[in-house]
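hey so i finally got around to running the thing on that chain from the lab meeting. sorry it took forever, my laptop kept dying and i had to restart like 3 times. anyway pasting the input first so we r on the same page abt which one it is
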Amino acid sequence: MRISLAIVILAVCFIISVASSGVAEQYEYKDYEVKKGDTLWDISSKELEDPFQWPLIWKENIFIENPDRIYPGQGIRIPLRVIMQKEEAVPVKPEPEPIEVLKPPVKVIEPVRGRYLITKEALLAGGYITRDVPYKGEIIGSPRRRIVFGKGDEIFFNSIVPVNKGDRFYVIRKVDKVEHPKTREDLGYLVGVVGIVEAEEAGKDNVKARVIEAFNVIYTGDFLDEYYEVEPPFLPGEPRKPQIEGFVVAMAYMKTLSSQFELVHIDKGRADGLQVGDVLMTLIPGTENRQNGLLQIVSLRDNTALALVVKSDIEINRGDAVSGLQ
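ok and heres what got predicted. didnt touch it at all, straight out
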């Protein structure tokens, strides 16, 4: 009796082992230790045979805050199913398959953060370049007579029109005049979005409000702008590589309080045919075509764009040339 029971247990273990092996093969991952000089772009090119699949590696490793900041010794996992899917896509001569009972597909829930190219917080804090700085009002103080504010603090503001309780506004800051580094053309002002406030009462002057989001420190004198919903850009399936020539004209206003995204502004935008998700390269200063880094467009205006630094061999600065991938 004992022998029979042992045989049954061994058989069950064998079946479970085979089933587990099949699942592991279907969703295979590779453990990888980051080496000096590695970037997600390089790792994706080497391990997935396609550098433009780097967002998939980022998505699988949610502890990586900034895709351009990985460090030697870090352990990451690489979704090899990307290669397997490519191999499965190769056409083969169809063969008759046995009829089998269909089973419901397994629902795989992907991490929500991984769907986006950049966080909403970083997108807003990166700011934008404009000739006409919005002005719907101004922060004038607080019940505690403070001049510096963060999330949860109460403030007072004046508005150019009466507001209702519950109305929201972006808090913005006019930073600097932006002059084109090559042509010296006046491009307008760099504006940073520093937070969101919500009115706690109706009125126009000396309205009490609360800071509900602070992307950086908020000061008395910061402007208010109309509130509108912002959706971060989704990761593109196959990013475009437009042939375009331009320059980095400004560094993003600030890093956020909770993330370290590197963002830059370039002198090309929607009017030049750019789209969110497009990939461009930066050139080493003083050279004509030596690649320094890669940028991916995350936000567009008519004549300028905000771009995420995906890869950089040396620091990217204002005045660096931007070009289409060769």
